[in-house]
């Protein structure tokens, strides 16, 4: 039986956005007002992103919260 946990869709999408912009987690964490340690824990699904977190991330990356949550495959960006 494989008990390996897979990252959440939200974490995967945020990670893809971070990589796509050539950023580091620490830079994103500071930009949205969160410590790097807490951001890392949330990215590793040890804690969940709050609505406030998701709104800040959506604003930072210019995508929709629905995209981050996996409710839409369209990022909602104008690019």
Q: Descriptors for this entry?
A:
434 Repressor (Amino-terminal Domain)
What is the CATH topology descriptor?
434 Repressor (Amino-terminal Domain)
**Number of strand segments:** 0
End-to-end gap: 43 Å
* Form type: globular
Q: Tell me the number of helical segments per DSSP (H or I, 4 or more residues long).
A: 5
Q: Regions with pLDDT < 50 over 5+ consecutive residues?
A: none
Oligomeric state of the chains in view: single chain
Number of domains: 1
Major beta sheet summary: none
Share of helical residues: 40-55%
- Content-based structural category: mainly alpha
Radius of gyration: 12 Å
Query: Which architecture name does CATH use?
Result: Orthogonal Bundle
Strand content: under 5%
CATH superfamily: lambda repressor-like DNA-binding domains
Report the top-level CATH class: Mainly Alpha
What's the mean pLDDT score?
90
- The ordered string of helix (H) and strand (E) elements is HHHHH
Structural features, described:
The protein is an all-alpha fold and 79 residues long. It has one domain (9-69): lambda repressor-like DNA-binding domains (434 Repressor (Amino-terminal Domain), Orthogonal Bundle), CATH 1.10.260. Helices cover 54% and strands 0% of the residues. The protein is built from 5 helices and no strands. It has helices at residues 9-20, 25-31, 36-43, 51-61, 65-69. The longest helix has 12 residues, at 9-20. The termini are far apart. 19% of the residues are buried.
